[in-house]
Specification:
The structure is a single chain. Helix 6 runs parallel beside helix 7 (119-131) and helix 9 crosses helix 10. The chain has three domains: 2-96 and 104-274, Rossmann fold; 281-379, Translation factors (Elongation Factor Tu (Ef-tu), domain 3, Beta Barrel); 397-526, Peptide chain release factor 3, domain III (Alpha-Beta Plaits). By secondary structure, it is an alpha+beta fold. The protein has 15 helices and 33 strands. 29% of the residues lie in helices and 29% in strands. Strands 28-25-27-26-30-31-29-32 form an eight-stranded antiparallel beta sheet. The structure holds guanosine-5',3'-tetraphosphate.
């Protein structure tokens, strides 16, 4: 028991989010380096190939050279057991990216210092805010010319609506990058362009009071600027408050350079101290405590055909409480069955490892013979609770889909329903029609290609797609109080229903959403669907 508590309390499970190219992969590799999970030589050089090996499960990925799926990495550092949930780095990311955030206890946000907050960061951030999970910011690429530091922080505060608290402060950037000032220790850590891919070099630390030495190290001009900025900063920035960090209202910010490995270990250390161990999670019987309760988990992702030869599906689950043992029997609550999980495994960077045990905070993948759905709960045979469902995230692209060969209606419906059940796409129907007209909604347009590819390869069905102009979808929060027939929207609005029969509205632009709300007093719309 003591061991189980210790194991759970040393776990830190976080998702790493960024706009593509901000340096997420590079930062993750440096984290792994500190944990000794990968060897030095292979890390940087083999990056491109290693990255593809992680999730190269479909031809489409190979053809496009991008990663469609997300993967999980586990490593040990300083007594902690860390799970990093990686998210697809391409612009055409999917709902999997959102769902991954549901399985994490905190998030690391990587921002390119010359770009500030970018579109994708904004979207993912919204989900973090909804979940109120702590967010730790790493402002990367300080070895390149960066935006003004105060502007960068302002940008985060305005764009994302979260207060910032710099942990360290950069001195110059690009060619003039001299290092960072550590606010807690009140000293300057000089920048050393340590060999790429190796551990951090021996950077010099100079107490800021030692002004003579400081001026000598970073130059008169930089020293003047720094001293002035420190004064400003101490007066102006939000007071550090761990409570606010843990509620997701204040983000600690570190500056550094992942590529040259500067500031990475400091960030990792700070972050591990501040991040929480697995927290209680809400179920229909109340909160489930990770330590007090025995095994329970929920499915947050289903991935089909990772191994083409076997046509298997892997269900990824986040363990929320207790200890998992490969031999034990568990209850699949939604399926109403008690079973042994088949081939439990940990999906590491480039290999799958069969697991014998795992703890709350860990992510495991199990063979799925087609019985699991996103959001399903697993627990001990004696238990029967269900975790709160994972929200359905609003798709942003819509198309009407038909099969080319009308004789293949059955396969078409079966295929599209199965793919929707995995959560790879969302399907909708016009309010008063059957399945003859299917509207598919996706978060990233690449999912359309995936759908087309999979229907052809797995179900032997060719489809025709007609893009629809809608960009926004809203679930009706108070559907029981709304008379759908009487609801008046804009002329370009469309009423549809999802697979469970929930009514939804499709809009071409956000203006129409406002207009519809104005015209229908009392109507409540939401971007996140729940079962
Ligand atoms: P991502 O996963 O967020 O998409 O970004 P990734 O780490 O792949 O980094 C994107 C590019 O930015 C890479 O260059 C990477 O080397 C570079 N980069 C990452 N961190 C830093 C940094 O701190 N400083 C500088 N100057 N560059 C950084 P690339 O040329 O696209 O790829 P590669 O050929 O280096 O692999």
């Amino acid at each position: 028991m003591g061991n189980r508590t210790e194991e759970i309390n040393r776990r830190r499970t976080f998702a790493i989010i960024s706009h593509p190219d901000a340096g997420k992969t590079t930062l993750t590799e440096k984290f792994l380096l500190y944990g000794g999970a990968i060897n030095l030589a292979g890390s940087v050089k083999g990056k491109a190939t290693a990255r593809h090996a992680v999730s190269d499960w479909m031809e489409i990925e190979k053809e496009r050279g991008i990663s469609v799926t997300s993967s999980v990495l586990q490593f040990e550092y300083d007594g902690y057991c860390i799970n990093i949930l990686d998210t697809p780095g391409h612009q055409d990311f999917s709902e999997d990216t959102y769902r991954t955030l549901m399985a994490a206890d905190s998030a690391v946000m990587v921002i390119d210092a010359s770009k500030g907050v970018e579109a994708q960061t904004r979207k993912l951030f919204k989900v973090c805010v909804m979940r109120k999970i702590p967010i730790f910011t790493f402002i990367n690429k300080m070895d390149r010319d960066a935006n003004d530091t105060f502007d960068l922080l302002d940008d985060i505060e305005k764009e994302l609506g979260i207060a910032t608290c710099p942990v360290n402060w950069p001195i110059g950037s690009g060619k003039n990058f001299k290092g960072v000032y550590d606010r807690e220790k009140r000293c300057v850590i000089s920048y050393a362009d340590t060999e790429k891919g190796t551990k951090e070099g021996t950077a010099t630390e100079i107490p800021v009071q030692d002004e003579g030495h400081l001026r000598e190290m970073i130059g008169e001009e930089a020293a003047d600027k720094l001293l002035e900025e420190i004064e400003l900063l101490d007066g102006a920035s939000a007071e550090f408050d761990l409570e606010l960090v843990r509620k997701g209202e204040l983000t600690p910010v570190c500056f550094g350079s992942a590529l040259t490995n500067f500031g990475v270990e400091i960030f990792l250390k700070h972050f591990l101290e501040m991040a929480t161990a697995p927290l209680p999670r809400r179920a229909d019987v109340g909160l489930i405590d990770p330590v007090e309760n025995e095994f329970s988990a929920f499915v947050f992702k289903i991935q089909a055909n990772m191994n083409k030869a076997h046509r298997d599906r892997i269900a990824f689950m986040r363990i929320c409480s207790g200890r998992f043992d490969a031999q034990m029997e568990v209850r699949h609550v939604q399926g109403g069955k008690v079973m042994r999980l088949s081939q439990p495994q940990q999906i590491m960077a480039d290999e799958r490892k069969i697991l014998t045990e795992a703890y709350a905070g860990d992510i495991i993948g199990v063979f799925d013979p087609g019985i699991f759905s996103i959001g399903d709960t697993l627990c001990m045979p004696k238990d029967k609770f269900r975790y709160e469902g994972i929200p359905t995230f609003a798709p942003e692209h819509f198309a009407r889909v038909r099969q080319v060969d009308t004789m293949k209606r059955k396969q078409f419906v079966k295929g599209i329903e199965q793919i929707a059940q995995e959560g790879a796409i969302q399907i909708f129907q016009e309010l008063n029609s059957g399945l003859e007209e299917i509207i598919v909604g996706v978060v990233g347009v690449l999912q359309f290609d995936v759908l087309k590819y999979r229907l052809k390869n797995e179900y032997n069905v060719e489809i025709r797609m007609e893009n629809l102009p809608y960009e926004h979808i809203r679930w009706i929060e108070n559907k029981d109080q709304v008379d759908l027939d009487k609801l008046v929207g804009t002329s370009d609005m469309k009423k549809v229903k999802d697979r469970k029969g929930n009514p939804l509205l499709l809009f071409v632009n956000s203006w129409s959403i406002g207009m519809t709300l104005d015209r229908n007093k009392g109507l409540e719309l939401t971007e996140f669907g729940r079962d």
